[in-house]
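As practice, study what follows.
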Amino acid sequence: MSTNVPTNVTYSLEEFSRHGGLTGPHKDGWGIAYYSEGDVRLVKEPHSASDSACVRFMQEHPFSSALVMSHIRKATQGANTLTNCQPFVRELGGAMHVFAHNGDFDKGRLRERLHLGFHRPVGETDSEYAFCALLGRLEELWLRADGVPPLDRRTSIVAAFAEEVRDLGPGNFLYADGDALFAHGHKRMHGEQGIRPPGLHVLCRRCAHDARAAHINGGAHDARAADFGGLTIMPATGELHVVLIASVPLTRESGWRPLLEGELIVIRNGAIVGQSRGYHGPVSAIV
């Protein structure tokens, strides 16, 4: 989630649990990263979210953030340990970088193709190795910059990385550097249909801040709050601009759009500011 203002974020225990073990297969761990004041508040566990006291705590005591990334794990590589739970967080160039991957890379080919820089994995997953390899490609840019490097240069590096990992297996990933959120859609398992696109979906919405009652998803809600199938966000003041990225649409509204196979979108402050559509597509700015 990316918004234009810091926003109280509440995860519905019932909805979140359904994706995290009650009705879904993803019950091998979970994690949520909230950007705040230049740092990241990271909460994760190597257990199902469906019976987590931490999830209950966050529901009752919501954190405020303009950039949030969450992941529910179905273990394909590595044991059910805290080190293998996503999102992963690292510091580079005085900024906190966060990464989550939904897919399964061939780890042997991953190590052969992508070499590491300064950062090393703590756990055993292909996802964390890929994150460290991405940071290795970004190291020179961030360490030489006076502050945050230009967005177009960061985007070019992330786009080249995305193109390379697509050859190694399903490569849907989210990457954030505190300034921008990068979302790469590829392909994923679709039940009996096998592995195919789309791998991610995106929704852009504006929500007015007022006190009138509104009917969202069949129920009455305060119009200041927006409900996205288990994720409730409440802006402090003004109009809320929000971009949501999810593996599958969280609501039935028509605004959700599947990302094309190989599409990369760049998000800042609740708005899409750049995108590369499909394989070898140029990265273009959106004004």
